[in-house]
Amino acid sequence: MAREMMYGEAIATAIMEEMERDSSVVFYGQNLAMTERDPFLRKFGKKRVRIAPISETAETGVAVGAAMTGLRPIVELWMSEFMLVAFDELINEAPRLRYMSGGQVKVPLVFKAGYGFAAGWAGQHSNCVYHTMMGVPGLKIALPSTAGDAKGLMAAAIRDDNPVVYLHHYMLTLDKGPVPEGDHVVPFGVADIKREGTDVTIVATGWMVKKSLAAAELLAQQGVSAEVVDPRTLAPLDVETILKSVKKTGRLVLVDQATRHASAAAIIAAEMAEHGLKALKAPVKMVTALDTSIPFSEPLETYVLPSEEKIVAAVKSVIAKQAATV
Amino acid sequence: MAKKKALTKDRLIWMYTEMVRVREFETRVKRTFVEHPGVIRGHTHLGDGAEATIVGALATREKNDLAMPSYRCHGYPLVLGTSPRKMMAEIYGRQDGLCGGFGGSMHLADPQHHFPGTSGIIGQAITHATGAALTAQVKDTGQVIYCFFGDGAAKQGAFFESLNLAAVWKLPIVYILENNHYQAYTHIGLEDANYIAGDPLSKKAEAFSIPGVTVDGTDPLKVYAAVQKAADRARSGKGPSLIEAKFYRLSAHGNAITVPPVPTQFPEHEAVEVYGKKAEFAAAVKNDPIPRFRASLVRKGILKNADVKQIEEKAQAEMQDAVEFALASPPPRGEEAVKHVYA
Questions:
Q1: Which phi and psi (to 5°) does residue A297 adopt?
Q2: Domains along the sequence of chain B with CATH
Q3: Any long-range contacts for A301-305 (C-beta under 8 Å, 24+ apart)?
Q4: Which residues is B246 bridged to in the sheet?
Q5: Which of B99, B124, B135 sits opposite A61 (nearest CB)?
Q6: What domains, with CATH codes, occur in chain A?
Q7: Strands (E), chain A
Q8: pLDDT digits (tens, 9 = 90+) for A69-84
Q9: Which of A117, A238, B80, B183 has its CA 20 to 30 A from that of A7?
Q10: Cβ distance B108 to B73 under 8 Å?
Q11: What is the model's pTM?
């Protein structure tokens, strides 16, 4: 059984349920639980639900220290770019302390933030910065694209014994989708095939999954069968499922809202070059944001980001390439 | 609230003994650079000169209280009961090291002995200690966290953000600012606004409306008294305090940064090497906390000369054993390196 839920609501529900399940889970952030009416505050009290000052370094570092000593903190950081203020804690503390201690401590925490806000938030509030964290050993990264995954990945993130960066896409916040009832946990490192197809594999995350599915629909009307694969977590990355899909379809289009050389797409392309080259009937095609910051005005913003049309064009080009080779 | 612990004769002797042990350990680490060149890799930082502050502060702890210092971290776990054999083996990068050779001098960790771990990035561990205090508060464990950091770290955003947050949340933590007068290689007179204005560094506490006191960090009894008061306050739910303990780091910031195959050595203290202040350094050596505390205990009849000799010899034998153990321990196998990435 499943019930319809908004993506944003699914995340909040997961946090609520996990806090009920485990009294060591605490939740804090800026502008969080400001009044007594806050549902988390009402349910779990001031000890476990807190408002934090605008201090990203302390908010994240305190979570690291709390996690080392027995809590499971969830830090609401709001926007992924705010994490950049606290990059020492994200990159050089949370994921390294266990390793440096020779496995003596664990650091179970969730850094939660939204990203990719393509709605006029301009250059510093709508970027995709996950690539900067993707190669950091010890850190896990989740990017849910549906309400169901949003809930299940949050539950998994909170239960994980490692630091997790949980990035939800702002443009999906109000999207409704089915969420399985009861204890719903989406395991990390397991890609999901969002649409099956035979002619081309499209790999996408977050909002780009939605755009890729729309593109696949358009392509279907033109007789092209596209498979859409969502890795769901970038670390760990399920290369196997992508490879398996590519072996079936022989073509790969990588859609990523990040800029080209700072994208997860580039990493996946490298994995395919090493492990999947023989299966490819055409070169890999990357559909990414242009190498610019995100501009403010709508036509400018639209121009730099991937779109359904760009995805369709990319798919057509890899199919044409094969024809040319043959 | 914890009762003020009277320092018994035994406790005073324990304090002196621990100071001697810490000094002897650091001496043996430093000697390793000369006696076994190349055995210690990377960057090593010594706490000689800090013994009175380390021991005076930790003498106030209750059983489960945690110590969370910076990367200059050898003294604290030693006082908390960590094996000097394992510590030395870690500093030598050996298989039997405290962290299996994954951490080294800057990253000692021994959670079983109330020492969760350290950060090598100046100031960041202040946030971690603050987080440990959050755990103590949420879980109502009654613990106090002893957070040690240097004067350099007190210029990091992590310091200001942590103290503000700890004051807002009334966290059970004591912030012990070890003013050893040099932030790495730079004299405090070049980088601290309070110092330049002629104020104590504990004035920074005023920014957060919490108690701030400055004590002579070369006198373990003065440190003890100030930290006891702050720990009682923290334990009773009134929140954090800032204690500036003034002393002088007796070794250079760390061993010289050299590029292999040139073996690294400990240089002269920055006061001499960089600033040419020979008199300043000589005065600091003369003010060494250990002989001073020893003299006061002998004067009071708490220690006899025979005790002094025995304590020193015991510490020497203990650290000699640690060095021998570490030298005999094999290096870890390379393929171990992929362990411990994820829990």
A1: -65, 140
A2: 9-249+265-327 (3.40.50.970)
A3: A301/A118, A301/A120, A301/A126, A305/A118, A305/A257
A4: B179, B216
A5: B124
A6: 2-180 (3.40.50.970), 192-325 (3.40.50.920)
A7: 2-6, 25-29, 49-51, 72-79, 109-115, 140-142, 163-169, 176-180, 192-195, 200-203, 226-230, 233-235, 252-259, 285-289
A8: 999 999 999 999 999 9
A9: A238
A10: yes
A11: 0.96
Q: Which amino acid is at A91?
A: I
Is residue A34 within 8 angstroms of chain B, CB to CB?
A: no
* CB-defined contacts A:B, below 8 A: 158
Residue whose token pair is 């870690």: B90
Angle between the N-to-C axes of helices B289-299 and B9-35, in degrees from 0 to 180, rounded to the nearest 10: 150
**What is the ipTM, given to two decimal places?**
0.96
Note whether B103 and B55 are within 8 A (CB): no
Eight-class DSSP state of B330: P
Could you tell me if B271 and B281 are in contact, meaning their C-beta atoms sit under 8 angstroms apart? yes
Measure A274 CA to nearest chain B CA, in Å. 22
- For residue B162, the chain A residue with the least C-alpha distance is A58
CB atoms within 10 A of CB A278: 6
Q: Which amino acid is at A257?
A: Q
Q: Which of B98, B164, B343 sits opposite A162 (nearest CB)?
A: B343
Q: Strand, coil or helix: what is A219?
A: helix
pLDDT bin (cut points 50, 70, 90) of residue B2 is very low
B135 → closest Cβ in A53, A71, A106: A71
- Is A102 in CB contact (< 8 Å) with chain B? yes
The CA distance from B80 to A182, in Å, is: 46
- Encoding tokens for residue A253? 């289009």
